[in-house]
Structures are given as structure tokens and as C-alpha cells.
Amino acid sequence: MAVGGGFAVDGAGNTYGGRITPAAVITCIVAASGGLIFGYDIGISGGVTTMRPFLQKFFPSVLRKAADAKTNVYCVYDSQILTSFTSSLYIAGLVASLLASRLTAALGRKNIMVIGGTIFFVGAAINGGAENVAMLILGRILLGLGVGFTNQATPIYLSEIAPSKWRGAFNTGFQFFIGMGVVVANCLNFGVAKMSYGWRLSLGLAMVPAAIMTLGALLINDSPSSLVERGKIDRARKSLAKIRGNDSNIEDELANLVKSSEKTKAMNNEPFVTIFERQYRPHLVMAIAIPFFQQVTGINIIAFYAPVLFQSVGLGNDSSLIAAIILGLVNLGSILVSTGIVDRFGRRFLFLQGGTQMFLCLVSVACMLAIVTGVDGTKHISQGKAILVLVFMCIYAAGFGWSWGPLSWLIPSEIFPMKIRSAGQSISVAVNFATTFVLSQTFLSMLCKFKFGAFLFYAGWIAIMTVFIFFLLPETKGVPLDSMYQVWEQHWYWRRFVKNQSYNGQNI
Ligand code: BGC
Fold first, then answer.
1. How far apart are CA 208 and CA 281, in angstroms?
2. Which residue out of 158, 294, 302, 404 has the highest number of ligand 1 atoms within 8 Å of its CB and is therefore the one to mutate?
3. In a domain, 195, yes or no
4. Number of domains in the chain
5. Cβ–Cβ < 8 Å for 300, 442
6. Residue 328 falls within a domain, yes or no?
């Protein structure tokens, strides 16, 4: 049984050359910076929610509880209202990502990035100047709308701009910027934690990454596919010439994009209906399963609450923030590993290796916590043991950084045919946000109730997703976007769903 690997295709003969041009690299770096705002936000919220002046102003009940935290180390930060501060962003993001699909069809991917960045900018300003919880939540809703748009448009943009041979590497740029945003935010939190208005700086300075990415998006051309989709053929040709280089075979690539677009238009189908057709079942399953699984690796629990978590397991306030920075740096470095090998070893290899590593680390963390804090979590953990927990978490973060982190943006952006690509990515981002919301809303109570068992819960999910990848995810490395249908046709399970599309040499 060929479970999924070893697929080196170019069935329709569409490689279009694999040359990497400086223009393509620069365009992708600029576009990938769309990940900055998402990462900054992820990194900032965890730290801000441990800042005393912030808690005193908005969530005084959490501080009162922390004062008598002697009894159970897992329960200190279990507050629904504090959690809703963090997670309100995700509900807004979910709505925005679904809207983004339609808007991109009308306005193009580039403009969606610009709009997303601008809304995020306003949200950051409101948060920095917040005087009450309502302002805080309003700011976060705007941030959510912003990242909903940018997370929908950026990964597809990257996959459409990249030469197929290097699509994986280019696409990991998005996760790299997310990781960078996390680290910058963590460092900033550390720097301002002692200031009484530190939280205002942390929240307000989100305007900087928003400005960077918005200006960057204004400077780049839209992707050729998106231009063709909107009937701007000449601009698409220019955009292709720029990113592929004048000497490459851009006319063939353009002709195929036009053909795909015409067929799509002739069908006049509603993408959100089409995507539920039986022939797109494998795509839809991936668009839902991949982001869901990414979240149940437990990564955000570690990212949002790393400082909180380290405090609860015995590291002091300062060292908790440092621990979060270390974790972020490890994650960042490991994304580069993925950039280096994702187009050589393939997506499946990274998923399977990373998943196994993450599983082992979480089981180890759970065992350690069970042993040193006691089954009911009443014993305090020593500094040395807390550092060991940190080491395991770093190995876990590295595993995530080269597997589920970047690949969960890459896979949904590359598996869909043009006519439902935007809808597919929207669904994927919405599932990502919905799952993040539910998990962040429940994690602190879960940690409080299940204690070290919470980590076993995520380890269990990682085991399931690794088996899922092994059996059900076909290898997509190097396959041009418009030949992608072949990976499903040749897959031992999914082939029964897809119509044989090889006859017209192209997937629409
Ligand atoms: C995930 C986020 C996560 C981040 C961590 C992203 O790919 O979607 O939920 O917080 O990686 O770096």
C-alpha cells in the first residue's frame, strides 16, 4: 500500500522552471511579514496577563487569588474573564477569515493584507490607550479582524508566488514571521514588565508590526493568480515576469492560469457550496483536520501561558518571562530547519518526525510534574526541576517549529484548485481560530482540574494526528499547484473520492 510518500510529479508538464529570482524572494519576505502581527499578539498577551499593574487595573480578582496560591500551583490564573481577554481575538478572527474569501475575489490578496494590517493598527491603538475592560475587548476584536484577513490571504499569496519546487521553503516564511513576532513581543514584555505602564507599551506597540506589514503589502504586486481571477491579465503577465524573471516561460504559466480561471467562471459555482462536493472531500478534510490538529498539539497553551505556566510550576516572575523568550527563540530557529528541508525531505517526513518528538516531550513533562509537584499539585517544584521542564518544552517547541507550525499554513494553501482555494483557506483559518478559542478558554480550568494530566491530553492528540498523517496525507512537495489533483488520484484512500481529472491535463 502506497501510504502517501514519494510522489514526484509534473504530470501536466508544468514546472515553469524552478528558478528563484531576487524579486520572488523579496516579494515573499515582504508578504510573509504578514505573520508578524499574529505572532506579536500571541507573544504579548501571555506576558501582559501576568503584569501586576495590568491585573490590578482590569482583573483585580486574579491578584487576590494569586495572593493565596499556596494550596494548588495549577489554579492561580484560572479566571474566565482573564481568558476571554486573550481569546476574544479568535472569535473576531474567525468571522473575518470567512469574510476574507469573498473579499479577496473582489479585491485581491494584496489588498486584503493591507486592510487587515490597517484594522490591526487601530485595534493596537485602542488597546494601548484602554481605560476599561470594554476598550480592551474592543481593541482585541479589531486585532482579531485584522489577523483574520491577513492569515487568510498571506499563505495563499506565498504559495502562488513561489516556484513549485521551493513552495514549501517560501511558505515557511509566514510561520517564521509569526515566530519572530512572538519573540519580539516576549522580549518587550520582559523589558517593560517593571514599569507601571508597561502593559500599555506592550499592547500599543503592536502598531509597529502592523505598520511594517501594511506598508510592505502596499509595495508588492498582487499574485498572478489573483490578478487573473479578477481579469487583469496584463498586470498578471507583468507580475509573473517580475517574479519569475524575463527569460522564464511565463506565457505557459499565464495561459494555464487563464484557462483555470475561465473554467471556474464558466461553472459559476459558489465556492462554499462546491467545496462540499464529494470530489473535494479529501481537500476539505485536510482544511479542517490540519488546523484543528495544529491547535491540539497544545502549542498555544504553551505560547499564551508560558510565563503563567512557569510561574505556576515554580519559576519566579522574571525567570518565567525569560523562559518564554528562550522557548520563542528555539521555535524560531527550528522554523529555519523546516525552510531548509521541507522541499527536500517533504512535508510528511517533517510531520511524522516532529509529531513523535512533541509526543515524547509532553509525556515527559507530564511525568515530571506528576512526580515533583505531587499528584494533587500541592508540592512546590524546585528551580532545577522547573528548568528541566523548560528543556522538555524547548524540545517540544523545536518539534512544532519544523512541523505543525509552518506546515499547517502550507498544506491548506497548496492543496486546493484555484476555484475553491480562497474558500478552503478561509475554512482552515476559521477552524484554527475556533479551536484556539475553545482551548484557550478552557485550558486554565483544565490545568487546574486535571493538573499534569492536561499535558497527557495533548500528547494523546499528537499520537492521533501522527497516525492520521501517516495514512492520509499525500506528499505534495514539488507538485505544481495546477497539477495537485494527481496526488489525490494516486492516494490509496482518497482516489475513490476524486474525479479523474488527468484527461484535461489540469486541475481547475
Ligand atoms: C499557530 C498559532 C501559534 C503559533 C506559534 C501558528 O502556526 O497557528 O496558533 O500560536 O504558530 O508560533
1. 41
2. 294
3. yes
4. 1
5. no
6. yes
450 CA from centroid of ligand 1 (Å): 24
pLDDT along the chain (508 residues), means of 10: 42 54 88 92 83 89 69 61 81 93 90 96 97 93 95 93 92 96 91 91 96 94 92 92 79 88 78 94 98 94 65 67 85 96 98 98 88 63 76 93 98 94 95 91 77 88 98 96 93 90 47
Residue 3 belongs to a domain: no
Residue nearest to atom 12 of ligand 1 (CA): 179
Q: How many angstroms is it from 72 CA to the middle of ligand 1?
A: 29
Unique residue bearing C-alpha cell 486592510: 115
Distance 125 CA to ligand 1 centre (A): 23
Q: Which grid cell sits at 356?
A: 513523535
Cα separation, 451 vs 371, whole angstroms = 12
- Which residues form the domain of 428? 22-505
Nearest CA to ligand 1 atom 3: 300
Protein residue whose Cα sits closest to atom 11 of ligand 1: 405
Pocket of ligand 1 (CB under 6 A): 42, 175, 178-179, 182, 294, 299-300, 303, 331, 405, 408, 432, 436
For residue 300, the CA-to-ligand 1 centroid distance in Å is: 7
Q: From CA 484, how far away is CA 274, in angstroms rounded?
A: 17
Amino acid at 240: L
CATH code of residue 260: 1.20.1250.20
Task: Kindly state whether residue 140 falls inside one of the protein's structural domains.
Answer: yes
CA distances for 248 relative to 64, 139, 160, 256, 294, angstroms: 66, 46, 16, 15, 37
